[in-house]
Write a structure and sequence with these properties.
This protein has 8 helices and 17 strands. Helix content is about 30%, strand content about 25%. The structure holds nicotinamide-adenine-dinucleotide.
Length: about 350
């Protein structure tokens, strides 16, 4: 990476984590890192593409898609040329394109490992969507390749750049309301498309992999610890949709000194909460995990942060790390691996009839 010597003062710090803001004045397209989006489904179309029009340090420089019918939309919407559109057969030729610095994997979960590794081996940094892989073994393989080829691997943990979540982390670190003792974290929705890959086991479907991971994340970044043990139970409605994958899972994670996180996820119930129970007060986010407007309050006050584009801040935070070595907000592959270890243990506990498993 040649170019860039940007203004390093653009980041504000909350709890030691950075929230890049719009003070950043780089609008020079040539100096931005080029991002290639791989997989042009709903998240790329509705969130990442638009975010890349707001980023200060990144720009959309290519897409990878197997669907010719999507070409026109991406060409018109983002001014891409034919030469900037790749498919899965010529994927490896991105290696020759110097305009691509970061490859962003936005594919079904079972394809994350394969395409992250391919992109790393093409000499590109990678952002991989959550969950980073099908299990911890795959996640470890990805990290190993990233180290071997000396290219960075990041995970699409956008909430690490959201001001509401950063504020909650600050309360926990600073003990603003005393010690944190209980975390309640729930994320679920009623999945409507019966044919979605998220209902297929071989694709890495299921509520836990899709949205339960946000509850694991919240419990981990608020306590600032890894759980010591957990127990989990699965509940199934009688809908045939859930023949292959988990529907509702409720689990409990124990941390040091009696701290506990009670978590739930579901594909048949709408939930979107984070409650932090401190000795002398509480903080509550609802909706907590949305990429639109998070909202919340504490036992003392309403929280009123302006709405930000989480994806733009997340990608700029990563670019600022790659360009200026300003630490990113803990969105590296190792962070993704820690979640995969817990996901594996949740399934292990379910398979052992909700027995407590040690981590
Ligand atoms: P989607 O189904 O809308 O998009 C997936 C894309 O992959 C589609 O364009 C599809 O054509 C393409 N694809 C390529 N090969 C495929 C194959 N063999 N089978 C099926 N599809 C194939 O899914 P999505 O909601 O965009 O999710 C993609 C990834 O992004 C998932 O890992 C998901 O967890 C993640 N995601 C993250 C967030 C977030 O807030 N961070 C939000 C939504 C999705």
């Amino acid at each position: 990476m040649k170019r860039r010597n940007f203004n390093k003062t653009f980041a504000t710090s909350i709890a030691g984590l950075t929230l890049s803001n719009n003070l950043f004045s780089n609008n020079d397209k040539k100096n931005k890192l080029g991002v290639a989006l791989v997989g042009l489904g709903s998240y790329s179309k509705n969130a990442l593409g638009p975010a890349l029009t707001e980023t200060k340090l990144c720009k959309l420089s290519a897409v990878v898609t197997g669907s010719i019918e999507k070409h026109d939309y991406w060409k018109k919407q983002y001014g891409l040329k034919d030469s900037q559109i790749y498919n899965y057969e010529n994927f490896n030729s991105i290696a020759e394109n110097d305009e691509i610095d970061i490859v962003y994997i936005v594919l079904p979960n079972n394809m994350h490992k394969e395409f992250s590794i391919k992109a790393l081996e093409c000499g590109k940094h990678v952002i991989c969507e959550k969950p980073m892989a099908m299990n911890a073994v795959e996640a470890e393989e990805m990290i190993k390749v990233s180290k071997k080829v000396k290219k960075d691997l990041f995970i699409g943990y956008r909430l690490h750049y959201d001001p509401y979540h950063l504020e909650c982390i600050k309360y926990c670190k600073n003990e603003t309301f005393g010690k944190l003792n209980v975390v309640l974290a729930e994320f679920g929705y009623g999945i409507s498309n019966n044919n979605h890959w998220k209902l297929k086991k071989s694709y890495g479907g299921g509520a836990l992999m899709d949205v339960g991971i946000y509850a694991i994340q919240a419990a981990r970044y608020c306590t600032g610890e890894e759980p010591i043990s957990l127990s989990a139970k699965e509940y199934k409605t009688n809908s045939k949709k859930f023949n292959e994958v988990d529907d509702t899972i409720v689990w409990q994670m124990e941390f040091s000194n009696g701290k506990v996180a009670n978590c739930a996820t579901s594909f048949s119930a709408s939930m979107n909460n984070l409650h932090l129970g401190f000795e002398k007060g509480f903080a509550k986010l609802h909706p907590a995990y949305t990429w639109r407007k998070v909202s919340g309050y504490t036992s003392k006050k309403q929280l009123t942060f302006p709405m930000i584009n989480q994806q733009a801040y997340h990608m700029d935070g990563i670019a600022n790390y790659l360009i200026n070595k300003v630490p990113h907000n803990n969105v590296g592959g190792e962070e993704g691996l820690k979640d995969m270890i817990i996901i594996d243990k949740i399934f292990e506990s379910i398979n052992k009839n909700s027995n407590t498993v040690l981590l």
